[in-house]
Amino acid sequence: MLTPLALLALLTPSASAVELTIHEGWLLEPVPGTYYENGIGSPTVTYDRAHDQWVMFFETRYAAADAQCADGHWGIGRAVSANGLNWTVDNNLLLEPQPGTYASCQYAHPTILFDGTTWHLWFKAQQRNDACDGGVTPPWGCLAITGVGYATSTDGVTFTVTDEPVLQFSFFGFPTVALVDGVFRMYVAASGAARSRFELFQSVSTDNGQTWSNPEVVLSPGFAPWVEDEIYNPSITCRDDQALRFTLWAGGRDKELEVGGPPTLKTAGLGRAFSTDGSRWAWDEASPFILWNVDPEPPALPDKDWRHWDSVRIGDDYLLFFSQFNDANKNRIGLAYTYAGQQTSFDERHISNRVCGTNIWDTGGTIDTDTVVDTDTDGPAETDDSDTDTDTEVGKDDTKDDGKDCNCATTSPRGLGPVLLLPLLALVRRRRRA
Fold it and tell me: Which of 46, 93, 158, 160 lies 20 to 30 A from 281 at CA?
């Protein structure tokens, strides 16, 4: 079996380092009087060639908590854009919780994939506290978080939701899916027990996303201090290059145990991993692209870490649509990318939609617009102030539990001295592009 270092050596052709540029300004922010006034986050983005527009799906807490939905009522909305930078939000929610369903409290962490005919939307589902009152247990059980939900659409606007979750998880978040060689591959950040070690699980489907294999762990935390305890918010992209089939942008967290209390989140970071087969993974580098200090020593203020992100590949470059708290702890959506300097437009017709290995073009090549069919799309992410991370048994606000904390302020991931906690709005230093 290949060691992580040996696997990374095999992936060298595509494991070229990059710098992230934070785009100036916010793409979308909460607007008073709208259904997303409490926050707009967990974006998942694609490009719809048929209508020549970018499409974003997002989550929002549209109604406050009550006795049955202790973390509030969350739904999924939609926005469109002509250039990926200026967005118009739909007037109404796309998906809203309904009584008696496995998502009677929350539709969260949406991820979108368009295969040319069908829009596939997966999400994290949460039900009401009284779901098992009366002695009747629904097929998905009695726990608050019911699993990965699934909805399909032919127009990207009107969706049909499955009657049951397609995967039952109780402590998880951030489903992300790619369609490679006709097989759907789903990755989720999940834990076998509440608030313990979070790992990357993979499940596959060969019947158009309806049934899935038993999830298996394919990547674990612990290879470096910044990802000591948890992997969170995986976001997958693929390409037709067999040497670098999959690229994963994922978060890592370090937590510090507190005597007589729950672990405290210390740092959160953003890293990248590669795989040729979707099962064996190697991190790009030991150090993260960005490292946030979310629990500094007073009087320093904590960094505002990204709550969720969605990676979109354009050729050899990547866009990262992310959500981050404002000063009122409400999510807003921003953008970072591997392009140097501020961008005013993107080559959207070269966007990969996580569909690879078929007769669909790969984003690295030349496109014949006369023969190309609308077949691609990208998407994945998480929640705003209440449901802002990977797991939580009841989806409660894990601002301190939504990541990981580490006691690694004295040693860098490379063992080269103190960790440099990078400001969010700074470029992240990386190796030169190979």
Answer: 46
CB 324 within 8 A of CB 306: yes
> By C-alpha distance, which of 131, 137, 79 is closest to 105?
131
Distance of alpha carbon 229 from alpha carbon 219, whole angstroms: 12
Angle ∠(72,73,77) on CA atoms, nearest 5: 135
Residues 6+ apart with CB under 8 A from 393: 143, 144, 145, 170, 171, 194, 195
pLDDT, mean over the chain: 81
Return the SS3 of 149: strand
41 vs 419: CA distance, rounded Å: 29
44 has pLDDT over 90: yes
* 193-231 pLDDT tens trace: 656 689 999 999 998 888 899 999 999 999 999 999 999
Residue 403 has pLDDT above 50, yes or no: no
Rounded Cα distance, 207 and 202, in Å: 16
For the record, the structure tokens of 52 come out as 């020549």
Q: What are the φ/ψ torsions at residue 44 (nearest 5 degrees)?
A: -135, 130
Q: Name the nearest CA neighbour of 251 among 189, 295, 312.
A: 189
DSSP 72-110: -EEEEEEEEESSSSSEEE-SS-SB---TTSTTSSEEEEE
Rounded CA separation 8/283 (Å) = 7
**Among 151, 197, 154, residue whose Cα is nearest residue 172:** 197
287: Cα separation from own chain's centroid: 20
Inform me whether the pLDDT recorded for 166 exceeds 70.
yes
List the domain boundaries for the chain. Answer: 4-356
Q: Do 395 and 104 contact (CB within 8 A), yes or no?
A: no
Residue with tokens 């999510």: 331
Place of tokens 């790619």: 178
Q: What are phi and psi of 383, to 5 degrees?
A: -105, 175
Give me the pLDDT at residue 416, please.
24
What's the CATH number of domain 4-356, 2.30.130.10, 3.20.20.140, 1.20.81.30, 2.115.10.20? Answer: 2.115.10.20
DSSP 8-state assignment for residue 365: S
Given a contact cutoff of 8 angstroms between Cβ atoms, the answer to whether 42 and 309 are in contact is no
